[in-house]
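W.,

You were right to be curious about this one. When I first looked at the sequence I had no strong expectations either way, so I just let the prediction run and decided to look at it fresh. Below is the sequence, 358 residues in total, followed by the output.
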Amino acid sequence: MNKSNLLQTITELSHEFGTSDYVKGGGGNTSCKSADTLWVKPSGTTLGGLQPETFVAMDRAALGKLFQLAIPAEASAREALVKDVMAAAVKPGQTARPSVEAPLHDVLHGTFVVHTHPALVNGLTCSKQGAQVCAQLFPDALWIPYIDPGYTLCMDVRRRVQDYTTKHGHQPALLLLENHGIFVTGNTPDEIRAIYRRVMDVLRSKYAAAGITTVLPVALAALPDVAEKVKAQLRDTCSSHATGIAYSGKFAVAPGPISPDHIVYSKSFPFMGEVTRPAIEAFRQKHGYAPMVISTSLGVFGVGLNQKKAELALELAQDGALVQQLAGAFGGIQYLTDRAREFIENWEVESYRAKQMA
């Protein structure tokens, strides 16, 4: 397959798996490769918005040097060096920043890689029994215990892929990442589609057997004039960060951090209760940031510096609530640890991605 056909195919796959069933906001990434070039989704873009010319072309030999370097142990120094190496691997004439997971895509031998974060999948990957159930339902899958995104994740996946290959004689085509999502790789688009279809069908049947709906129950929204009064109160109380406000009827907001994307777009913790200046200030003092998700008796509000950020916050809050609901089929939700949460909250890469989406 020539370059033009490769890029057209990965664009079509990106659009197919860039719907709200698979990703939210700028989540997920895709790639295709030839012997010497990796074309990967730019950071901070959406799968549904990609075009053939959007993909960042990277020199695979230069990118492979990342695995030969002496990497600093300190997180910020490590990630800065990795960012520089990745920038140097970008082929001339391009300005977009490649997805931080580009080295992971390069490790996988399949021509195409599609990485997404479907709620149906994360109901498993973000559950307490995820690893055990994965082994039962998908014995061909490679389960990746949670590890910080970026270089450390790429190195861990690389080692685990090598071990899997030694044991099975081939690389895995399906990878499930704890509290993160799913990677699928294949040499044809039909291979990618078949694996996704199998995974989603199996999980749907498990949720049905457990009596858990795959639709998030959302209460009826308040009357428009009532909702507008609450929005006005939010603007007054949270004036510094509530330029944009999105509103939904009440649902069971997840009280803790579920995955990197949930932290990036809706923060680790929601505010729950009636909105007052002292309560919002107490939240800010406790967590170090203003809330982006506010759950009240009248419903749930996403707030942000603009309307797009507010809508993304609410969308990710609903996704997190659905993941929490689905995880009930596998022992209940497993939140990220404080250490994992703090890494995401302070990671420059995710800050960049959030700014690009805004």
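Here's what jumped out at me. The chain has a mean pLDDT of 92. And, maybe more interesting for your project: Residues 38 and 58 are 5 Å apart (CA to CA).

Coffee later to discuss?

I.
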